[in-house]
Amino acid sequence: MKYRVIHQLTERNFDKEASKSELEVLDYLEKNFTSIPFLSVIKVANESFTSQATVNRACKLLGFQGFSEMKYAAKEDIELMNSTSERHIANTEYILRKINFDGAACVSDAIIGSRRKLMIFGLGGSNISALYLQRQLLYLGIPSLLVAEMQMFKNFEGYSLIVLSSSGETQRCLQIAKEAKKLKMKVISITKNGSSLMNLSDYCFHHDVPVDKMKGISREQQLHIMIMVNEVVDQLKKKLDI
């Protein structure tokens, strides 16, 4: 069983652009998600300062015929969210669907091509993933240097730099990548699809996992990055016949 409403509310990747009033409805539904089963279309319209017709149009953007169908699906989502094991299973399945696993091939090839001259950078939560990647590479006989700032790699011409960043928009990550390009380094990244870091990279393994929001504060998840690192490592094992 998969979530049918909450992910659509948070991502909002619709086929057509939502109007301002429809966005007001979507914002209200996302903010009051756990209360949806107890709401009426009239209350939603009043509380979001819109109309019943607008509420139904917003529900159609989410993939439903109208408010009643969306309300029933939201109830199922909430029941699933309240089941701890099912919640984690559904979340992991969702993350797996958001990873472009085909992209691991070019990254593993790039690592093999630079196997004696590799540097790795990760900031914050991604630093943990960077440490994990370095350790896994050592198990495969591939040495690498973990760097924390630009000054550390200015004398390492001919190296390739692996940058791990969940968002691909962290300024220090982008500065590191830009400096590496100036030094004629190849930039290999594990990051978000369409991000600034992806656009700077020579090789990229990307995902489409959205930022996790907690009352307006971004919480950096690393599960998808760890899964992606493991996929790269698995491909390296096969290609190196280890």
TrEMBL record:
Record's superkingdom?
Answer: Bacteria
Q: Enumerate the Gene Ontology biological process terms.
A: carbohydrate derivative metabolic process
**What would you give as a GO molecular function for this chain, any one?**
DNA-binding transcription factor activity
Q: Which residues lie in coiled coils?
A: none
- Every copy of the HTH rpiR-type domain together lies at 5-81
SIS domain boundaries: 107-242
Q: Which Pfam families does the protein's record reference?
A: HTH_6, SIS
Record-given protein name: RpiR family transcriptional regulator
- Organism, by scientific name, is Youngiibacter fragilis 232.1
